[in-house]
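Record type: monomer structure entry
Structure origin: computed from sequence
Chain ID: A
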Amino acid sequence: MKLRATLIGFTAILMWSFLALFTAASGKMPPFQLSAVCFAIGSIPGLVVLTLNPARLALLKQPAKVWITGVAGLFGYHFLYFTALRNAPAVEAGLVAYLWPLLIVVGSALLPGERLRWNHVAGAFAGLCGTFLIVGRNGIDFDGAYAVGYGAAFLCAFTWSGYSLLTRRFDAVSTDVVTGFCLATSMLSFVCHLGLETTVWPATGFEWVAIAGLGLFPVGAAFYAWDYGVKNGDIQILGAASYAAPLLSTLILVLFGFAEPSWRIALACVLVTGGAVLAAQDMFRRKVQPPVAAE
């Protein structure tokens, strides 16, 4: 059961790895407008399930703390991420924001029934180093003039890691509630769009297909899979394995001609893959209990 849930959680990481490709192909829609549209699309699978089985609507009735955590996690992360990108260089802001997998691994020590081991931390650090090679391929230069942007990126990392860790504590809450989180995030993003951006719609059918792909997978199904994975799977392995997302994203961009292969990508593959295997060694090396001798 735990292995299955961990693998389901990992599908979210795989879907997030397509985020850059779909975003690059989606045209020039402003970020909050894109977020509003994609989260609306992402809620559709959940709405279909609720429509086909109306009895599950009762599962949406949850304590306020569940709703606050969910909406703050999904909307708060994207709001802070966009704020970081508006106020700091994308490379540095992205690297700071991607501290969240490491924060999940370290923070998991605070969860009931979890035990933080050296291999979890070492695996997460290896993944962080691999991400540094990918994100900082053209150099890193943290400038104090962009403190607001870096601060938003740091809060972004804390927001997503905090959401993931708190979600684990709500393990009895059905994943159906993610549908409500997506709808609320869509509406709040739309409000931000109206106040901060100029509306831009896709120019071609291909761009609409890319936006639909974003909404159905990286900004849709991925959040349902992540919710189930962190609630029922190995959150430490998922945290360390999350560093595979920027690596896989880069490999996909290379495959589709949006980026060039390099030694950095090869070394990042070794670091991220090795880090994930190191973090998961407890799962790979389950001790076989000796059979009890018959009396």
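Annotation 1: The longest helix spans residues 205-232.
Annotation 2: Residues 286-295 have pLDDT under 50 and may be disordered.
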